[in-house]
Write a sequence for this structure.
């Protein structure tokens, strides 16, 4: 079992959030329940088919590769230095983590959350205009270009639920990298 960490912190869940309506921010909860193949119980984005309002296309609705949204707390620390105060749940994530560089993990990485829940990373979250409605100028901080012109999205990662279970702040995280060739995360 491989573990990936960008700090000396023990990988943990910092906060969990869900919302039963399609709103940008999600209220922080004491716990959330993950359901295999479905997502976060009671969350507006849960379900086996895509639920994101801007992506649903009638009968052609694709599988939901965005059942759970995770963001690393370290991003909030970086944003604070850049003048943007952001708290868990405010960018719409379901799980805020610490001690793992989520953006550096490959597609297919599995993350055990607490005792029984496990998700598999499917891709990157593509920041949308709602981010600037939340805080003016924040979108520029979440999408960056490097010296070669490559785009780097920092608004978290998306996952599907492999094993269900209850997740709470303070739960340990365990990262398992996929076997074989490792593919970088792309937008889902």
């Amino acid at each position: 079992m491989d573990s990936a960490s960008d700090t000396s912190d023990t990988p943990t869940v910092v906060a969990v959030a869900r919302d039963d309506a399609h709103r940008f921010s999600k209220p922080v909860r004491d716990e959330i329940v993950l359901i295999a193949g479905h997502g976060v119980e009671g969350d507006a984005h849960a379900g086996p088919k895509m639920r994101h309002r801007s992506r649903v296309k009638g009968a052609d609705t694709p599988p939901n590769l965005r059942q759970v949204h995770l963001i690393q707390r370290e991003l909030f620390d970086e944003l604070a230095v850049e003048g943007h105060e952001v708290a868990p749940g405010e960018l719409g994530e379901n799980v805020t983590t610490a001690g793992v560089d989520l953006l550096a993990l490959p597609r297919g990485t599995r993350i055990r959350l607490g005792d029984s829940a496990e998700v598999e990373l499917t891709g990157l979250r593509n920041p949308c205009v709602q981010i600037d409605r939340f805080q003016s100028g924040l979108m520029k901080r979440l999408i960056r270009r490097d010296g070669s012109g490559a785009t780097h999205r920092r608004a978290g990662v998306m996952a599907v639920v492999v094993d269900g279970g209850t997740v709470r702040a303070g739960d340990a995280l365990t990262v398992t990298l996929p076997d074989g060739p490792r593919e970088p995360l792309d937008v889902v």
Summary: The longest strand covers residues 117-124. Residues 17 and 94 are 5 Å apart (CA to CA). The two ends are 26 Å apart (CA to CA). Residues 1-8 have pLDDT under 50 and may be disordered.
